[in-house]
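Much of the work behind modern protein science is quiet bookkeeping, done one molecule at a time. The protein below has been through that process, and both of its lines are reproduced in full.
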Amino acid sequence: MTSARAACPLCGSTAYEIVYDLRAAHSPEDVPGLVVRCRACPTWFKVLALPNGVPTAYPGEYGDDPMAATYLVGSAARALFRRALAGVQVSGDGGAPHLLDIGTAQGALLEEAVRLGFAAEGLDHCEANVRAARAKGLAVTLAAAEEWAAHDRFDVITMMDIIEHLRDPLLVLRNVYRGLKPGGELVVYTPNHRATVVELAKLLHAAGIRYPVQEIFGRNHLVFFDDRSLPLALQTAGFEVRAQQYFRYDTARPGQDVSRLNLALVGAVEWLGKPFGRVFRMLVYARKGLRPA
C-alpha cells in the first residue's frame, strides 16, 4: 500500500482523511484504491491500491465499442463540443484560431472545431484512436498528456473529460499553460463532485447503500474536482479563470452503462440541484495572461 507516501495532486500535502475504501474492484473500468480528502485544500483524490494501478487504456475508449459510439462521437457528444467551443473567447491575428484537443479520441471535437472555423489538431494516448482519427484526415499526435510539451503555439486548448483521469493534473495544466499563446484560452469539462447527485450518493452510502458511491468514485477517475478545487488548480498553474458554467448530467450521453431507471433518478436529482448550481457537469474557461507568469 502506498498511502503513507501519497500526496495531494494539487497542494502536495500528505495529510488527508480516508473517506471511502474502494480497494475492491467491481468493474473492469474500476481503478481500485482509497478515496481521500486532503486536509490542506478542497481536493479529493484516489490513493491507488497498487503503485502502478492505472491502466494504459480503459475499456470502452475505442471507436468500435458501443459506449464509445455514444459518449465520444455521438450526437449528444457533438452538441456538447459545439457548446464548449461556442463559449471560447480569443483575440487572434485574424486567421483561424489554432486549437489543440487533449484526449481527442476519434476526433469528434476536432471535426466540430473545423466546422466552426478553427485550425484544429489533437493529442491522444490510445494508438487505435489515433489511427481512427488520422483515417478521417485529422492531425492527431500519439502521446500521453503528461509527456506533451509546446511553447506559445495554440490559441485554444480543450480538455474534455480528461483532467479527472490524470495522476498529475497540475503537471499537465502547467504544460498546457506553456503551450498556449499569451491571451490563449483553456477549456476544461469535468464532473462537479459537489453536485446534489454526489451528495445523495454519500448519504446513501452512509445508510448502507454503496452502489452509487462505487459508480461515482470507484471507476477510472483519480482526482474528484468540484467548483472550488478546479478553479484553484487552474490558478495554481498560472491561469485566470474567466467563466464557469454548470449544467445537468446529460442522460443522452451516459459515461457508463446505466439503466434507464437510474438515469431517470439522476435526472430528477440533478433538476433539484440546478437552481443552486449543484449539478454534475462543469465547463470552465481559463485564460493565459498577456504577460505570462
In short: Residues 260-273 form the longest helix (14 residues). The mean pLDDT is 90. The chain has nine helices and eleven strands. The two ends are 38 Å apart (CA to CA).
